[in-house]
Amino acid sequence: MLVEVAGGRGGAVEAGIDELHGHLVGRFRLAGGSTHGAIGPVEGQTIARLVRQSIDAGVPVVGVLDTGGADVNEGVASLHAWGGVARALSQASGVVPIVLVVTGPCLSGPALLLGMADVVVVTGDAVAYVTGPATVEAMTGLVVSREQLGGVGVLAGRSGVAALVAADEDDAIAHVGDVLGFLPANVSELPAVWPSTDPPDRRCERAASIVPASPNAPYDVRHLVADVVDAGDLLELRAGYGSAIVTALARIDGRPVGVVANQPLHLAGTLDIDASRKAARFVRFCDSFGLPLITFVDTPGFLPGVEHEWRGMIRHGAELAFAYALATVPRLCVVVRKAYGGAYIVMDAKAMGNDLCVAWPSAELAVMGAAGAVQILHRKESAERQAELAADYAARYCTPRVALERGYVDRLVDPADTRAVLARGLRALANKRERLPKRKHDNTPL
């Protein structure tokens, strides 16, 4: 049961080891909005202590926040308090899952705590920002409302802070239970394998029929993924952010997995900054808690553009490569359609160290598409001649058989057999244990 702890002038925090939808968790609730629920010395110490207790007990941390930020009545002691919470959460990161729920305002410095969580769930009343509308107007002259600055639409879309949106607090807690159902309680345990009534060798006829014959026609990769994984066991995270990538928790043959898939419905599956960062964070999350990674590839490359390059496409694209290269969990890759250029590499290509890479017979693995290659190599030729050369280039270089012969693809599979191939691969890799060279920590390109 939660134990209520009296707080300072800002209110009180409830904290304790509690059961949540069948999961034992370290749970706290700091609520009261802008006039109560502020983090003061007592609140900060209580939450930080609970996080440390959760680490010792090996249970996830679940927090509900509705707070006006640091308690101004306590002065700098309040800043010290939420700093202590931030340090405790950083120590818990990768040791136990951290899931935070925002049901109202979460303002100022404490809003940064959301960025330290593995999963953030928000309700319709959630508002989160570091600096408020008045400060924004004073510093920039821009008049903006609280909702425009950090409302649920911003959190779940533009900023990508929120992974899931709930109707109310009860619904949010139900979402938390769903997330924890895919995860182990701590890093020392493995995700639970549940009996599945969905046969592992079920043919995926729907998935096979979803991808259009035309290499440029769009389709919703979520429908493909839903047909491959166990029926009903698919939970998409951060659906409104970085829409060129789909990240989801799922099960195959009862085994929890993390799914990363290019989304041809958005930018034709082209990797942009948001999609790269979203996928990288998800890969690191899954690797932290032992979830095998299933990657579905259909991308024409990285999104071109001056603004994108100025904003750091190099660094953020490298984040995804870095995340995959360091992941030690079982990694299975399915090349569905296009796999071009650097984007093909960072989507867990064989060179990145995946354990199994399969391709559909219609897949294209190349530096670029045939038309683009011919325009570079034979730009002085007539349009008719370029069309002939493009057809020849596609037949010679874009076929997956070239990659198969060179060992870049392990095998070609019938699209309808994708589920069966992945299920067998997961069973074969169930005992995989890979260790990285000893070091203090990596220096990921943030």
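(the above was protein one; protein two follows)
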Amino acid sequence: MSREKPPPGWHERQRTLRRLSAMLRENEAAIAEAVCADFGHRSAVETRFAELFPSLQAILHARRHLKRWMKPRKRGVSVWFKPASNAVIPQPLGIVGIVVPWNYPVYLAIGPLVAALSAGNRVMIKMSECVPRTGALLARLLEGALGPELVRVFNGSVELAEQFVGLPFDHVLFTGSTAVGRKVMRACAENLTPVTLELGGKSPVIVGPDADFRRAATSIVWGKMLNAGQTCVAPDYVLVPRGRRVDFAGALGVAANEAYPVLAGNPDLGAIVNAQHYARLQAWLEQARAGGATIRCINPDGADLSAERKIPLTLVWDCPPDSELMQQEIFGPVLPLLEYDSIGQAIEFVNSRPRPLALYLFSDDAAVQRRIVGETVSGGVALNETVLQVAQDDLPFGGVGASGMGHYHGYEGFLTFSKLKPVFRQRRLNGLTLFRPPYGRSVALLLRWMLRR
């Protein structure tokens, strides 16, 4: 890819986004089939809702607002430099590298791609080796629709990914684990490549004392079971008021049974992506059980789902604090339940841990909402809902601390992949000639006045 071409104008960027949208629409079924094959099983409804729909909405949002985003913006100028003027002009960075994880391989490729293309960049994408069918399909579709001079897609091993992030990109956006994010940042530092890291972490749910348990449980079950819990903003653990854990566990069980009345062969229930991750989750559950935890699987028909590589919603309480389930991002349909005595204690517990990518609160109490929003630090907050904050095109998406750095989506994505070039424009007639050497008495008097203001 070359950096030598002039940046594309508004019309060209619009054409690119239209082609991208048309490609996704024309290949919905093929994309859903590829993702399902890579996972062993994933509902086509979930792929359409959680990957294709937000991708198309991101394109639509960018197309509607792109002209305004691209306009130069006037900035103020000090009275001492008038009649000069200041402005910032957004310009593309050049060539952007996007590293895509396996859990949402379509949306987490297309979302950053839309932002980078809207800003006028060329893009190279590294797909995850865990989803080879989806990666191969996207390579063919994207390069066919947009051309390899604009977008290139690479599929291959972890070693290829390491080489990829070591290239001298103008910006790299990586989505994945915190541990791998550190390696990406080190590799990019060699080329002084700026990075946006979209990581994960343990996103907490706080169930307020006034919460409607049925409403909260229905949302939590949906957010936790979407893509079998393999979502970076999935609820990771739940804090409930002291003495109400059993009641809330019952509400979660009812919600899970309503959503998945039969588990074996259920097309709505997603599979764990591969045997390695399935074994990881089973090992973490066994470790917690050995440490004294109580584990309850919401499995109404007692089905054996191991052959399908599926796991029902699994509730855990009295989980040892040093267990993997409480130390690592779970990334599966396992949900620890913890109790708190006061909202202050719940806040203290959240703040004592690495900063999460998402935080969820179920409460209609305005004072409690203000405290949670104001006294915690997280990548984002959703009140009385889970996961859907990610799908808001006019909200930035990104983490903080261990859950990431930088953000994208909508205008913030356009800014992430742009250089806001400052431009100072001087007029022919201006007062700065008074400050040119040789310096004399008039300059000294002016400076004395300026420095006292």
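Reviewer note on protein two: The first helix runs from residue 10 to 26.
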